[in-house]
From TrEMBL:
Residues passing through the membrane, by range: none
Compositionally biased residues, Low complexity: 28-40
UniProt-recorded name of the protein: RGS domain-containing protein
Stretches for region Disordered: 1-65
Domain spans labelled RGS: 75-188, 203-322
Annotated signal sequence range: none
Chain intervals with Basic and acidic residues compositional bias: 50-60
InterPro entries cross-referenced by the UniProt entry: RGS, RGS_sf, RGS_subdomain_2
Source organism superkingdom: Eukaryota
């Protein structure tokens, strides 16, 4: 599988969003006031959230396509380390009713920088009171936070397990969904140079290697009832990014098998019998490695390239996109 277009590659940015206003001052008392608690808890109430103004969408001015495309590469750190990327991620989390996870991480980052024991204790209590009812933490992580705020000088290291769990949730659940979200794809499309999209007409690899290109190709494939082929392709890309020969790789291989290759499944991808048989045997024998789906992907890419790709280039899905892109 080739992905050499370079369209979605870019250097990392190293800017951080300013801490939200609600974290800039430490409360004067250990416990939050009733008013402050109610305001904080409104963040986690879907009804209240509907009445709150969403966080402002970042201005695309000054952002070039490669920079924005890099936010979806690698880990969640790529988007968080860019000021505008972080803000767009915050907008996505707000829509997903999960904004509290990022706010918790930002609050604990501020806590780490505090020097005064009294200031740390007051802010640690505020963090616990604000986020404990809403974020999904293990009992062990929650207990460590509660225990340390009882001391005169809370140890930020005791917040470590909670921070790790929330960051894992952002990385493994919310970041993958952000990469596929409408808000991110729309932002990318605003920045996409017309020359990138024109390149898709002469390079199938460039089309598959571009976030916006795959998005529009997927919409077209859905219209001809062939979307499962691209979904399988994307699942294998994700599979290959997992640590080689790990339990996570073996588990993901089973998910892909059951989702796309099992006979009669809703999203079944049709492969030559011999190719499917080899994949099934290797998964059952726990021999999953980075090469597991190589032959399957070659077949699927050829299927997509032969007819759907050619028809996509002639479709209104592609021509309408070209018409609205700037040079």
């Amino acid at each position: 599988m080739s992905n050499n277009s370079g369209d979605d590659a870019a250097p990392k940015q190293h800017q951080f969003e300013k801490v939200p206003p609600q974290f800039r001052k430490t409360p004067s008392a250990h416990a939050l006031s009733l008013h402050h608690q109610q305001a904080a808890m409104a963040m986690f109430d879907p009804t209240a959230k509907q009445s709150r103004d969403p966080p402002p969408r970042p201005d695309p001015e000054g952002v070039e396509y490669p920079r924005a495309a890099s936010w979806a590469a690698g880990s969640c750190a790529n988007v968080l380390n860019d000021e505008k990327g972080r803000q767009l991620f915050r907008c996505f989390l707000f829509q997903s009713l999960a904004e509290e996870n990022l706010s918790f991480v930002e609050a604990t980052d501020k806590l780490k920088k505090m020097k005064s024991s009294e200031e740390k204790k007051e802010f640690a209590v505020e963090i616990l009171n604000t986020y404990a009812p809403a974020i999904n933490l293990s009992s062990i992580a929650m207990k460590k936070m509660k225990d340390t705020i009882e001391s005169d000088n809370p140890d930020i290291e005791e917040f470590g397990p909670a921070i790790k769990e929330v960051k894992r949730l952002l990385e493994n659940d919310q970041f993958p969904r952000f990469r596929r979200s409408e808000i991110y794809l729309e932002f990318l499309e605003e920045l996409l140079p017309r020359s990138y999209a024109e390149k898709w007409a002469i390079s199938f690899e460039s089309l598959l290697g571009n976030h916006v290109g795959r998005h529009h190709f997927r919409i077209y494939l859905r219209s001809i009832h062939a979307e499962e082929n691209l979904r399988f392709w994307e699942a294998v890309v994700e599979y290959r990014s997992v640590k080689n020969k790990s339990n996570a790789m073996q588990n993901l291989a089973k998910v892909i098998l059951n989702t796309y290759l099992a006979e009669g499944t809703l999203n079944e991808v049709f492969l030559p019998f011999g190719v499917r048989q080899v994949v099934e045997r290797r998964i059952n024998d726990k021999e999953s490695d980075i090469s597991l789906f190589d032959e399957a992907i070659k077949h699927v890419e050829q299927v997509l390239r032969n007819d759907p790709y050619v028809r996509f280039l002639q479709s209104s899905q592609y021509t309408n996109l070209l018409a609205k892109l700037k040079n």
